[in-house]
Amino acid sequence: MRALLVSDGTVFTNGRERLAALGARYGVPTSCEYHEFVAAGGLLSYDASRTDEYRQVGTHAGRILKGENPAEMPVIQTTRFELAINLKTAKALGLEAPPTLLAIADEVIE
């Protein structure tokens, strides 16, 4: 089976509707990092939670503004990831998402 993994980048992000439409036209499941791609018609996305990332940035900025030395602060890695699935696209491609996958998805577009 063929599939398309869309990379991160401005060209791909700005063309997400076209890429999703091409995937649908040629019957190729498409995946991307951002849930906006799934909303545009892509099959699925799995990426770090942007909300969690922004919260971490805010926490670090607050610590720096209070006088903490950035060089002495630990590097924080995201621990929360989000999965989004487009069931309409899956159906159009003749795919069925397992119930266990749907149960753990953060967003399911019907």
Q: SSE layout and pairings?
A:
Blueprint (H helix, E strand, L loop, with lengths): L3 E3 L3 H5 L1 H10 L4 E3 L2 H5 L4 E5 L1 H16 L15 E6 H6 L6 H6 L2 E3 L1
Parallel strand pairs: 1-2, 2-3, 4-5
Antiparallel strand pairs: 3-4
Quickly describe the structure.
The protein is of the alpha/beta class. 44% of the residues lie in helices and 18% in strands.
How does this model look, in words?
The protein is an alpha/beta fold. It has a domain of 76 residues: Rossmann fold, CATH 3.40.50. Helices cover 44% and strands 18% of the residues. The chain contains six helices and five strands. A five-stranded mixed sheet has the order 1-2-3-4-5. β2, α3 and β3 form a beta-alpha-beta unit. The chain is elongated.
Quickly list its features:
alpha/beta, 110 residues, 44% helix, 18% strand, 5-stranded mixed β-sheet, 6 helices, 5 strands, Rossmann fold
Query: Tell me, what is the CATH class of the domain at 4-49 and 80-109?
Result: Alpha Beta
Which structural class is indicated by helix and strand composition?
A: alpha/beta
Please name the CATH architecture of the domain at 4-49 and 80-109: 3-Layer(aba) Sandwich
Gyration radius over CA: 18 Å
Strand content: 15-25%
Spatial order of the strands in the main sheet?
Answer: 1-2-3-4-5
